[in-house]
Structure formats: structure tokens, C-alpha cells
Write a structure and sequence with these properties.
The protein is α+β, with helices and mostly antiparallel strands. It contains two helices and 19 strands. It has two domains: 107 residues, no CATH class; 136 residues, no CATH class. A hairpin with a 5-residue loop joins strand 5 and strand 6. The relative contact order is 0.20.
């Protein structure tokens, strides 16, 4: 009887873990460039003295991310870009290392640094810094042009070029900060990916999340029902144990 409780408890706990992944995806259904986390349940042998081949437990795993493209929507905003194909935008992570994102809603912080999601966008010589008060424009190859306040359009100057990389041949790894990084090399360090000279962006547009709200809602309902089923097994095991105790007390 105890083994039934532990097996059902394992299933219920892993259903909750899977639900958290689905909830995270659903919460980011409107986040620009978001890549959905994949999730699956797998059977694992029951450990312990009472282990039998016919008894298995369950474990929830996150094997990776869905790298499928999201829908591209025109915004008309000068600092909005959508990366074509397998390209990624290089940014500086909080630890100072290079990371990658598809989020293209660029902003300018109080220091004039161009950022996305709060992370500085990397150019040829580190983060790209724009003159304060300047009007910016984006080229298809990631070139950033600026016109100073009060100046004519002829005064357009190039202040940097966004580093775009091709990750089609690399299995990017998602970090806890939501950014992706190249896998570690033989030395244990993640080496930055080279610039892709052929990568291009669509200006005045944003790539949306590749999360399907309908599929996520269905998955949440499915997980909820699975959790309820596991709890019913626990309740049934508890009721059977109480009946057994009553029978033993009568004998």
C-alpha cells in the first residue's frame, strides 16, 4: 500500500513541475522573440528494496526549447527589428559574457546604450552607444545610423552595427535569465559565435512568441486532470488502509 502512495505522489509532483513549465510558456505568449520551453514526462524505475520491473515512477524533464519562428508583425517603430531566418541578436549578459536573443524591441537607456530586455546590444566594439537625443534608424544588415538633435538628414552617421549570429549549426542553451548561450567548448568555456555577414533584419517589425496560447491552455487542463487522477489514487489508498486497520482491530 505504501508503494501505491509513493508512486501516486511521484506522479502528482511531476505533474506540478510540468504545469510550471506550461505556465511559464503561457505567461510569455506576448513576449517578443520568446522561445517556448519543451516539456515531457518519462518513466523511471522505482528505487529501493521493493523495486520491481512492473513498477515505474515518473519524472518531468525539460529537454530543450522550441526554436521555431514566431509570427512577424509590423509595428512601424524605428527601433523594432525582427531577425530573419536562424539569426540571433548578440547581447551582453549580466555576467559580462555574450548571450543571444531574438527579442528585437530595442530601447535606449539613460546612458545612451542600446538595449533589449535590459541587456546591452553588442556591436563591433562592445555595446552600442547612441548620442543622447539623436534620432536612430536601422539598416537591413543591422547597421545603426544616428542623426543628432536639430541636424539635417544629410548628417546621418553610422554609430555601430548590431552583431548578428547564425545558430543553425549550434545547440543553444537557455540560461536562467532567459538568454541563450553557445555550448561550452573543450576548455569548458562558452566561446562567442562569429558574426554572420549574411544575416539580416526586418526593420519596423517584431517577431512574436512562438508559444501557442491554445496548445498551452489544453496542456494546462490535461496536467490538471492528471494531477486530480493521482490525488484520487492517494485518497483511495488512504481509504483502503483505513478499512484494513478497522478489520485488524475487529479481529
Amino acid at each position: 500500500m505504501d508503494r501505491i502512495l509513493y508512486t501516486a505522489m511521484s506522479g502528482a509532483r511531476q505533474s506540478m513541475e510540468r504545469q510550471s513549465v506550461v505556465s511559464h510558456n503561457l505567461a510569455n505568449v506576448t513576449t517578443a522573440g520568446f522561445r517556448a520551453q519543451l516539456h515531457e514526462l518519462r518513466a523511471v524505475p522505482v528505487q529501493g528494496d521493493g523495486a520491481l520491473d512492473t513498477r515505474v515512477s515518473v519524472a518531468a524533464t525539460v529537454p530543450g526549447s522550441d526554436f521555431g519562428s514566431g509570427p512577424v508583425n509590423a509595428t512601424g517603430r524605428d527601433l523594432d527589428i525582427a531577425v530573419r531566418g536562424d539569426g540571433w541578436i548578440a547581447v551582453q549578459a549580466a555576467d559580462g559574457g555574450e548571450a543571444y536573443t531574438r527579442r528585437g524591441d530595442l530601447q535606449i537607456n539613460e546612458n545612451g546604450v542600446i538595449t533589449t530586455g535590459g541587456n546591452p546590444v553588442i556591436g563591433d566594439n562592445g555595446p552600442i552607444v547612441a548620442p543622447l537625443g539623436a534620432s536612430l534608424s536601422m539598416g537591413a544588415d543591422g547597421t545603426v545610423g544616428a542623426i543628432g538633435a536639430g541636424e539635417n538628414p544629410d548628417a546621418l552617421v553610422q554609430i555601430g552595427r548590431i552583431k548578428l549570429v547564425d545558430a543553425s549549426e549550434v545547440d543553444l542553451l537557455r540560461g536562467g535569465d532567459g538568454l541563450f548561450r553557445a555550448p561550452a567548448g573543450a576548455d569548458g568555456e562558452a566561446n562567442p559565435l562569429p558574426r554572420d555577414e549574411e544575416a539580416q533584419v526586418i526593420t519596423g517589425a517584431l517577431e512574436g512568441s512562438n508559444v501557442s496560447a491554445v496548445e498551452s491552455m489544453v496542456a494546462m487542463i490535461d496536467n490538471g486532470r492528471r494531477y486530480e487522477m493521482q490525488m484520487k489514487v492517494i485518497e483511495s489508498a488512504d481509504e483502503n488502509a483505513q478499512r484494513a486497520d478497522n478489520l485488524l482491530s475487529m479481529s
